[in-house]
Write a structure and sequence with these properties.
The chain is α/β, with parallel strands linked by helices. It is 44% helix and 12% strand. It folds into 2 domains: 2-143 and 321-335, Glycogen Phosphorylase B (Rossmann fold, 3-Layer(aba) Sandwich); 147-317, Glycogen Phosphorylase B (Rossmann fold, 3-Layer(aba) Sandwich), CATH 3.40.50.2000. It has helices at 2-11, 34-53, 73-80, 100-113, 122-131, 147-150, 171-184, 202-208, 225-233, 249-256, 287-299, 301-317, 321-335; strands at residues 59-62, 84-87, 116-119, 137-139, 160-164, 192-196, 217-221, 237-239, 261-264, 279-282.
Length: 337
């Protein structure tokens, strides 16, 4: 998403430079003191750089959060009198654990100082305003480059389900388990599933589907983007429960290819899947509800086709790179006057 934001800003006519490669990520609450020392050294370097070459018009920081706070931007913006902007920042009081609490303070300071905080989900916007009611927030719909899908002619195969997801422990593996559990309940239906993806938990994922015949489940492994687009164009329904998804860009890729989505109504998934319009959302952690949604679209091809058409239209009009460029430009110009 950071790379896509750069593309969108550039498309809108802005010049974007990556000013630092300092890494402040901490996987545990034991935040290294070295981060602060490295940050001060980096601030001095950028001070010198800007003194020689001139300062930018604004500082744009993508995704500051408790594990990875922005240790540079707020300080440099105050020093040089330039606006501070965040995108996809998040804040949750339950993350105030150990030294992560100190990181949270840095994130919160940035949110309050920002000329605008660009939120890709309503959940993030609410979390920010709960902690900093005075913060300025604007919404931007999650987006992808839909260009690879524009020339594809959807040729959906009846009963052809597809999913594209990494195979790793945690939420991804939980979603695979949930999908397998739902499919067990509709073995009487005429469907087959193509799974695109790979990763360290592949053996566990394959085990989830071991009770199905090989004619039902195809493991296609890791594929290139154009190969994925081609497979999507031949699928009828995109199935992925989406446990813990911030929003799920793969859902948008499926919809751009003209494939309606079935997902759980959880986390940030409703930001990219509109129930009854571009797909179906089911109750969280309810295999029977999920199975019934698949059954409905497998049987009702007229409904599936209507959802597919709307999914493609919505991906183009709301969730495309071009739409994001227009929206981003409008946000910056209205908040940085």
């Amino acid at each position: 998403m950071a790379r896509q934001l750069i593309r969108a800003l550039t498309m809108a006519g802005h010049e974007v430079d990556v000013v630092s490669e300092l890494r402040s990520y901490s996987a545990t609450p034991d935040v290294a003191e070295q981060f602060a020392m490295d940050a001060q050294q980096e601030i001095r370097r950028i001070d010198t750089l800007w003194a020689d070459q001139g300062k930018p018009d604004l500082w744009f920081c993508y995704h500051p959060y408790y594990k990875s706070p922005d240790l540079l931007g707020p300080d440099l913006c105050r020093r040089h009198g330039i606006p501070y902007v965040t995108a996809e920042s998040s804040y949750s009081r339950r993350r105030n654990i150990g030294n992560w609490a100190l990181s949270q303070e840095i994130v919160l300071e940035g949110l309050r100082h920002a000329a605008v905080n660009i939120c890709l989900t309503e959940r993030d916007r609410r979390g920010i305003l709960d902690a900093a009611p005075e913060a300025r927030c604007e919404r931007l719909a999650p987006f992808i480059d839909v260009a690879p899908f524009r020339d594809l002619v959807p040729q959906p195969e009846q009963g052809h389900l597809i999913t594209v997801a990494m195979m790793r422990e945690g939420d991804k593996l939980d979603s695979y388990r949930a999908l397998a559990s739902a499919l067990q309940l509709i073995k009487d239906e005429d469907w087959r599933l193509s799974i695109i993806g790979d990763g360290p938990a592949r053996a566990e994922v394959e085990g989830c589907f071991s009770n199905f015949s090989s004619s039902r489940i195809s493991f296609l492994g890791q594929l290139q983007p154009q190969q994925i687009a081609d497979h999507l164009s031949r699928a009828g329904i995109y199935v992925w429960p989406g446990h813990g998804e911030a929003y799920g860009l793969a859902y948008l890729e499926a919809q751009a290819a003209g494939v309606p989505v079935i997902a759980e109504e959880t986390a940030g998934v409703p930001e990219v899947v509109s129930h009854g319009e571009t797909g179906l959302l089911t109750k969280s952690s309810d295999p029977e509800d999920y199975a019934n949604a698949i059954r409905l679209l497998v049987r009702d091809d007229e409904l599936r086709s209507r959802l597919a058409e709307k999914a493609r239209q919505r991906a183009e009009s709301i969730h495309s790179l071009e739409a994001a460029a227009v929206r981003l430009d409008a946000i910056l110009r209205s908040n940085l006057r």
